[in-house]
Write a structure and sequence with these properties.
two-stranded antiparallel ribbon; five-stranded mixed sheet; single chain; alpha/beta; elongated
Length: about 375
């Protein structure tokens, strides 16, 4: 009996004793993809792999370098900053598995996983530099830009939501299933006339209505602090700075949306002009998902980490736009071909919310009349 107990105890400690790696790093090919990138004449590979030129890539690395320097002591030295960033951008742009990313750069998949998470967190530390609402002077310039597009004054941003495919958790799976029947997480954003993201909210699962996502966002709660105080008088009515949204959003003094129901010619014309302003946010989504393909595919990360990935992609999008990086039409075509995840459209919201002395219906009607008096009426082709 004692002998059996000793054998059981010995087996227990043998099974549960800590394991030590016999081989910490296996030898891999010297001529990895990173080695190929650094060879003369391979500038096009940077653009294909990282969605930006090598000059912009190096600028990004310098911005991230202070946030990638770790004081922790590890068995091996950390990878160079450029390689860390390259691993992350390659996965975001291609949506490849960690195993594939590791093979491309000559590392184990666990190394690719480690540095992907590290760099995403570092990119989020640049959020305040690249994702922010405009101050008053910039807001007035943006309003002029929108007015050239849609003829409506005082618009400083277009708001909309999009569904990001996710691998949902087993617990609470149905919360993530949207109207089209596939699991997603909702991304709400505000975009200016140059496709720059001003505000991002990624919180709720795909079953949530656009209006619910909007009311749970920091934008709705803090609009007075985020949107600059400025107004223009049109026919005796003060028109504040506005966001423009689709019919799924409530009508607010600072958020206008199209007329619904049986439309008069003036209302139909107003909707056409409003649609011209709203199209920028749809184009911005196309550019975002075209650059960073992981947002149009089911990325193999924990659903709790997906919001961080989405925010990081938005920061990188704004960085690329600021660097004047071109966007290839083929990238947009690839997104359009992703028919597996067709976007669901939410139903109308008939809610009207007044704030202070501003009646949002009066603001919209005044803008409708202003357009009808000033410009030729437009007619929808739908």
């Amino acid at each position: 009996m004692c002998t059996m107990q000793r054998e059981v105890a010995l087996n227990f400690f043998t099974v549960n004793s800590p394991r030590f790696r016999e081989i910490h790093r296996r030898p891999r090919a010297v001529e990895s993809y990173w080695w190929t990138l650094k060879q003369p004449g391979n500038e096009h590979l940077y653009f294909e792999s990282f969605r930006m030129r090598s000059a912009s890539f190096l600028v990004l690395c310098e911005k991230l370098r202070p946030h990638l320097q770790s004081s922790e002591i590890s068995v091996t030295a950390p990878l160079p900053t450029e390689v860390q960033v390259a691993i992350c951008l390659y996965k975001l742009a291609s949506c490849s598995e960690y195993r594939v990313v590791g093979d491309v750069f000559g590392f184990h998949k666990s190394t690719a996983h480690k540095y992907f998470h590290i760099v995403v967190e570092a990119i989020l530390r640049l959020q305040l530099d690249f994702l922010k609402f405009p101050q008053l002077d910039e807001a007035v310039m943006i309003a002029r830009g929108f007015q050239k597009i849609c003829k409506i004054p005082n618009i400083i941003g277009a708001i909309d939501g999009t569904h990001i495919p996710v691998l949902p958790p087993s617990e609470g799976y149905l919360d993530y299933v949207n109207r089209k029947g596939w699991p997603s997480i909702m991304m709400q954003t505000v975009v200016d006339h140059k496709y720059m993201f001003q505000d991002i909210s990624v919180k709720l699962p795909g079953s949530a209505h656009d209006a619910t996502v909007f009311k749970e966002s920091g934008l709705f709660r803090n609009s007075a602090q985020l949107i600059p105080q400025y107004s223009t008088t049109i026919k005796g009515i003060e028109i504040p700075l506005l966001l423009v949204g689709d019919p799924a959003y409530p009508l607010l003094p600072w958020l206008i949306k199209p007329f619904t129901g049986n439309l008069s010619p003036e209302e139909e014309s107003f909707n056409c002009n409003l649609s011209s302003g709203r199209i920028v946010v749809e184009n911005a989504f196309g550019r975002l998902k075209g650059r960073w393909r992981c947002l149009s595919k089911r990325i193999d990360v924990d659903p709790n980490f997906v919001p961080s990935v989405v925010l990081a992609c938005a920061v990188l999008h704004n960085f690329a736009e600021q660097q004047k990086e071109i966007f290839l039409d083929s990238w947009a075509q690839n997104v359009e071909n992703d028919v597996e995840f067709q976007q669901p459209r939410d139903q109308y919201s008939f809610e009207i919310i007044s704030e202070g002395n501003i009646d949002p219906k009066c603001v919209r009607n005044n803008l409708k009349n202003y357009l009808a008096r000033t410009y030729t009426l437009r007619k929808s082709h739908i």
